[in-house]
Amino acid sequence: MRIDRIAHQSVVIVGGGFAGAVTALKLLERTEVPLKITIIEPREELGRGVAYSTAEPVHLVNGPSGIFSLYPDDPDHLSRWLVENGPAHGWTPPDEVGSSSPPRYLYGTYVRDELARAAKTARLCSTLRHVKSSATALVATPNRIQITTAAGLVVEADEAVLALGVFQPRLSPTEARLAGHSRFAANPWDAHALDRLVDSSEILLIGSSLSMVDAVASMEARGYRGRYRVVSRRGQFVEGRRTVEAARDFLADGGLPLSARELLSRVKAERRAISAAGADWQGLPLAIRPHILSLWQGASDHERLRFTRHLRAFWDVTAHRSAPESHQIVERVIAEQRLQHGRARILGFSTKKDAITVKLKVGMDVESVSFDGVIDCRGHQLHDWSQISDPFVKHLIATGEVRAHSTGYGIDATPAGDLINEDGLVHRNLSAIGHPLRGVAWESSSITEQRAQAIALADRILAKFTPVRVA
Questions:
Q1: CA nearest 115: which of 33, 39, 10?
Q2: What is the pLDDT of residues 3-36, one digit of tens each?
Q3: Contacting residues for 115 by C-beta, under 8 A, at least 6 apart
Q4: Which residues touch 460 (CB under 8 Å, ≥6 apart)?
Q5: pLDDT tens, 40-81?
């Protein structure tokens, strides 16, 4: 038997954050043909994106390192890497490294270095190229994809993958009044903006989930000793992660619920049972998580939107808990009576030179409170592609190469991630991974989900490139 070698096959990946980098990694390690891979990413380093570009050591990975190996068949790979490489990057691994949460910059270094290793040792003379620019236009045909960059380069490939990550919402007209104010941090990871707030007496934090934890940790690391007021529309407040076993697989009893109401009823009943048994409720989301994809894809759009309107806030603070080390900082600040949190709606802002007055509706009351610092901690959560101002996204929608998902979250695709154009036709060579697929697979923002998507996507692409075997 001989194998007819074919010319290099080509893949272009738009976006070089975690999702794009891991897709390239899986292509390189699994290919049976020579590959030419191009990643279009304006950042200097691949693998970091928004989440892992922060340089602050108090910003931690949201989960134990034991579940975030890039290689599911070698779950201890990350733990070994941290032991071997952590000290050189300023982090001393604890004894139980598998249950620890390393700094996000260090996890980004892990992804970057593993991709570089895969490129250096690539089989069959496969190559990886990093184009440091942004994509601006895409033209798709059944056989080739052409992508134009802001630098004027045209990249042509057999297959294209959109790994675009998430986008920051525009400031509302009310919030836009704060734009450029020296006491306002529109981004909780903007180190320079946070530096300007160290001398504040009281800071308003808008949002009460993981980004809020990052903001508090960052301010405390800078020596801030003032007060915080945390407000959110529903008054939820993130908790710290505890090491617990998953609760029993209660959703396997009698089939999966088909409505948000039924799901809520069964979850509440199981939580009461857990409480009565004296067990830890944090085992509950671990029991739900394996069913999320089936629950989401088995639901109608009506039920999906009911979930996002009524239950999403509860799910987010239940499933996405903060790293224990980070939450200890929040708990200390609360114990010092320096942090107050609760439900409130922001009605408006007025500004002076060194102060921002916020009109808050708390219950039935309206109050005006003056702060000398405001941090927007809602995170990068704009998933409606019709509202995204990025030129490449606007181009994709305007040309009809993609269409918005019917839920308003991300873009439409098959369950496997093959994109669907405005005429309802499935692209043969244009796929997506991660955040753009939020409407297709709700938890597609997580590391474990994106890792699984990258493996499946690499296998689908490589199946098209399999060499012809001749007897």
A1: 39
A2: 333 456 999 999 999 999 999 999 999 999 999 9
A3: 21, 22, 24, 25, 46, 47, 128
A4: 416, 417, 431
A5: 999 999 999 988 999 999 999 988 999 999 999 999 999 999
Predicted TM-score (pTM) of this structure: 0.93
CA distance 138 to 131: 15
Question: Which domains, from first to last, does the chain contain?
Answer: 2-59+103-168+382-470 (3.50.50.60), 175-239+321-376 (3.50.50.60), 250-319 (no CATH)
212-239 pLDDT, tens per residue? Answer: 999 999 999 999 999 999 999 888 899 9
Question: In this structure, are residues 267 and 345 in contact, taking their beta carbons and an 8 Å threshold?
Answer: no
8 A C-beta contact, residue 93 and residue 100: yes
Q: Which residues of 205-234 are buried (b: 16+ CB within 10 A; e: fewer)?
A: bbbbbbbbbbbbbbbbeeebebbbbbbbee
Task: Report the C-alpha gap between 66 and 93 in whole angstroms.
Answer: 13
Alpha-helical (H) ranges within 255-358 are 260-276, 283-288, 292-297, 301-306, 312-319, 324-335
Instruction: Give the residues across from 32 on adjacent strands.
Output: none
Q: List, in sequence order, the alpha helices (H) in 121-259.
A: 191-195, 210-221
